[in-house]
Amino acid sequence: MAETRKASRYVVPFAVAGVAAATIGLVPALAASGDPDLPEITAQQLIEKIAASDTQTLSGTFKVSTDLGLPSVAGLADSFASGGATGGTPSTDPTEMLTKLISGTHTLRVAADGPDRQKLTILDGSDEYSLIHNGDDVWAYDSKSNEVFHEKGEAADRPAEEKELPGTPKELADEVLKAAGDTTSITVGGTATVAGRDAYQLVIKPKQSGSTVESVKIAVDAKTGTPLKFTLASVEGGKPVLDAGFTKVDFAKPAASTFDFKAPKGAKVTEGMGEGPAEHGKSPEDVEKDLEKEFGGLDGLFGGMAPGAGEGKGMNVIGEGWTTIATYDTGAKAPKTDEAPKEIQGFLDSLGDEVDGKFGSGTVFKTKIVNALMTDDGKVYVGAVTKQALVDAANAAK
Hints:
The chain is built from ten helices and 18 strands. By secondary structure, it is of the alpha+beta class. The strands form two sheets. The protein has a twelve-stranded mixed β-sheet, covered by helices on one side. A hairpin with a 6-residue loop joins strand 8 (197-206) and strand 9 (213-221). Helix 3 packs across helix 6 (169-180). The protein is globular, with a radius of gyration of 22 Å.
């Protein structure tokens, strides 16, 4: 417990990487060569086309290449997974496996048949890791360790949101363009061929200076309106932060057997909290109590960095649009990296830059997209903005 408490003081820099991964998502994207000749279309019409898309079935293969400008986290993740600082988790844990996608290049297979059936497989040489949702069952299987995680969940058929939403694609497009306002440029940047399909390219760029985002490009299937490509580029240049995309795609309904799963003979099966004893877990109530004790609840754990998290509990928002900065007072002096557990000390040293100003001194924990300044007196400033923008915000707050 003491080691866990010590490690918890270093949540903020790790949350930076988590937020960056969350803002990226897993939207498939990788343009092939070729510029098809398609009818002209406006940005609003293309947004309407995306909104009108009703793709329920597909299968395909795509690659995800991520470059956050971070040092390798593979060894660090293995250390934590083996119980080094936070306690062990099963190798089939989806959160643990998906964190591997925040660096390097990975090949994935995907299949979907409506809201009740989806399958995602991460390929790693001859090894595979699969997540399967089939009705009320959720399975995770790691072929390398021959371990299975199974959990029962509610059926995917849930009542629609009661809040009022735009009623037509045109209304939705109008809302998107209105939300973009004066801070964003949205244009159609030509065409592309993605996985053998003709696509339009929607280009989104900040008009404000100080953002770390250079552009977002989304390739949209010209026939179905389905997004096929998402490329996120940083003002730092170099490789895209995210370049992930379909190399093969088929919109036909996958065979029902695609989503069938039976634990292989000899596999270790762990039941989740929804059914049977959890070998590795605790009840939701116990987890909530632990979070409250260790971090002051979820808001304390993430330092109020998630949108809307911690509002009314110390989090404030500075600026607007692409240069929005969230601020949060942890109420405690920032730890020194040389006090960190040895498993993460080198990682923190490579991730952070010491800075000073009117606010005093602190450390900027950086990626190519999301940066966070943690001052020595425990205040946190985080956003998809440059290091200087964070320092300026901290100075202005004094």
